[in-house]
Amino acid sequence: MPPMACLRRTLANGLEVLALPGGGSGSVSVQVWYRVGGKDDPEGRSGFAHLFEHLMFKGTRHMAPEQIDRLTEDVGGQNNAFTSEDNTTYQNLVPSHHLERILWAEAERMASLNVDEANFLSERAVVQEEYRQRVLADPYGRLFNAMVGHTFDVHPYRRPVIGSITDLDAATLADVQAFHATYYRPDNAFLIVVGDFDPMQLDGWVNRYFGPIRRPSSPIPRVNVREPAWTHSPAPVHLHGPNVPLPATVLLWKGPPASHPDGLALQVAQVLLSSGEASRLHEGLVQRRRIAQSAGWSCSFYTDASSITAYAIAAGSHRPEALVAPLLDDIRRLAHGPIPAAELDKARTQVLTSALVGRQTPEGRADALGWAMIHGGDPAQADRELMALQTVRAEDVRQALRRHVIDRPMATLYYSQAPQAEERPS
């Protein structure tokens, strides 16, 4: 697959524009990435970035609520949005001859969103219901929601992106309007356009619709918190939830940022340990020892750090405490033992294939460029990572695990059915 040699420029108001023409099969992906995520939520107001993911679909000065759906879905396209720890992203895919309308709509959302009481109250209720479904109703939702808070001590990554009902209840319209004015601005965003379009025509439309948007004079607050390393492992924590089918154990390590050289080796380690029935942890805990119903390992990369997680859900009557040593044993075996060439090649190929398959579509290429910008500020990093991935060696995997996981301080969470008196939703 050829390199993604995108065209890049910056408007006078600070908006960065990345354009990658070609290979759209008559379609075009338009994405706007805002450099605001869960880590930027004000203290005591977690969930604001996620709230605005929803609010941005409400009306603007010249656009009715949900009109973005009509401009995409009604012409055979689609739209979506997501919030992460570091960014909030709005994605559109439409036939190429509808490109101008989507550029106008995204400029409208950036310049003149209606952040009023009615929209705030309706979308806050939607987000709170999402919290109830994803966190309170899911048998393991409370566990997933608690993990970042037990990984990070001082960095804002410690707060779940989804927020909390309490923080959202405490929010006022003035709080929300101030957050919007602070972060939703052209100099805190970049526009990505990928697919079938004429670059000169695109430049003209971008200048027309985005160029007039005012750049505020106020500075953009940035998180400059360095997460301290643990000097020792925290005491194990016992968590409970209602309707928990089987107990679970989670091990957590503070990991390196997305830009760290060990990142690719840790991605390969994730496949070796956790992908499929032949993976190390599934074979060791589920098939051979038969002490777990499922087991896995993952590394979630953020701009400033990462969270490394190993987990197992107990099988039968096994207690969650009994899963810790087997999890660590199988991870340690990978970190210190041989990795057969065929096993390494398969894992490396799986990571590479996943990236290449994604790039077969305009939206997949736009996603790759966007993450490269968020994590390193350079779209070319997406291609460099693909090249570097092909050279990851067994020793790279072993060294990465020894640097960040093996014999490093870790947090341990045990999750099980709540005593009956504790089963009321919180």
UniProtKB/TrEMBL annotation:
- Pfam families per the UniProt record, alphabetical: Peptidase_M16 (PF00675), Peptidase_M16_C (PF05193)
Provide the Peptidase M16 C-terminal domain boundaries: 171-350
- What are the Peptidase M16 N-terminal domain coordinates in residue numbering? 27-162
Q: Which GO terms describe its molecular function?
A: metal ion binding
Which InterPro entries does the entry link to? Metalloenz_LuxS/M16, MPP/UQCRC_Complex, Pept_M16_N, Peptidase_M16_C
As for family, the record states: Belongs to the peptidase M16 family.
**Protein's UniProt name:** Peptidase
Organism field: Vitreoscilla filiformis
